[in-house]
Amino acid sequence: MNYLAALLPIALIGCSAATATDTKFPTEETQSMFRKINDTISVSPQISLEDVTAAKADGVTLIINNRPDGEDPSAPQSADIEAAARAAGMKYIAIPITHSGFSGPQVDAMIAALADGDKTLAYCRSGTRSTLLWSLAQAKQGVAPDEISRLAGNAGYDITPVRAMVDALAASS
Questions:
Q1: Helix or strand run (H / E) with residue 171
Q2: Cα–Cα–Cα angle for 30, 13, 110, nearest 5°?
Q3: Minimal CA–CA distance to 93: which of 60, 126, 70?
Q4: 15-47 burial, b for 16+ CB within 10 Å, e for fewer?
Q5: Strand partners, 44
Q6: Given Cys at both, which of 4, 50, 87, 123 links 44, Cβ 3.0 to 4.6 Å?
Q7: Are the CB atoms for 58 and 120 separated by under 8 Å?
Q8: Beta-bridge partners for 91
Q9: What is the rounded CA–CA span in Å between residue 32 and residue 30?
Q10: What are the 10-residue block averages of pLDDT along the chain, 173 residues in total?
Q11: What is the DSSP code (8-state) at residue 76?
Q12: Counting Cβ atoms within 10 Å, is residue 158 exposed (0-12), middle (13-18) or buried (19+)?
């Protein structure tokens, strides 16, 4: 059975609006906005252009945007964040996830994006889609579902919306 085909659609639950900081250096607010999942990836609600500088100061070398352009026209769009990241000497990858769910190619793109082991910040509206996509990518690579759930939970995210798919992907890897 092709478990990746079952990924579409998975409803996303719990995506809430985020506030962005307007400082140029990491602050307690910014640091708490970047939620560490493990030593190589943190997730965040929507970031501002100034947050790119804060991420760089935190050692981030790759920003992954999981938010589609136009979802919030007042938020910085992909090209704006990409330009700020590149100007700061960081890598940038866009893997937009709509509220309709995830696909196999998006999971594979996340796996490829994380393959170099860069210290990564992935963001979307609330950090939930970024966490769920990371969870699916980890499961496809054979990471134990309970460990994925534990790490996501430590960062304040619940993988329940994709837990069955995490279990299936991990079992098939």
A1: helix 163-172
A2: 65
A3: 60
A4: beebebbeeeebeeebeebbbebeeebbbbbbb
A5: 123
A6: 123
A7: no
A8: 62
A9: 5
A10: 43 34 39 88 97 96 97 96 98 95 96 97 97 98 98 97 97 92
A11: P
A12: middle
DSSP state of 77: P
- How far is residue 74's CA from residue 122's CA, in Å, rounded to a whole number? 19
Cis peptide bond N-terminal to 145, omega within 30 = no
CA distance 11 to 161: 7
Strands 41-44 and 120-123: parallel
List helix spans (H) across 21-162.
28-33, 49-57, 78-87, 104-114, 128-140, 145-154
- CA 123 → CA 88, 115, 171, 173, distances in Å? 17, 18, 27, 26
**What are the CA-CA distances from residue 159 to residues 1, 79, 147 (Å)?**
23, 29, 11
Which one-letter amino acid corresponds to residue 124? C
Cα distance between residue 164 and residue 173, in whole Å: 14
Write the single-letter amino acid at 6.
A
Q: Is the pTM of this model over 0.90?
A: no
Give the tokens for residue 13.
């639950």
User: How many CB atoms lie under 10 A from the CB of residue 94?
Assistant: 17
How far apart, in whole angstroms, are the C-alpha atoms of residue 59 and residue 121?
A: 10
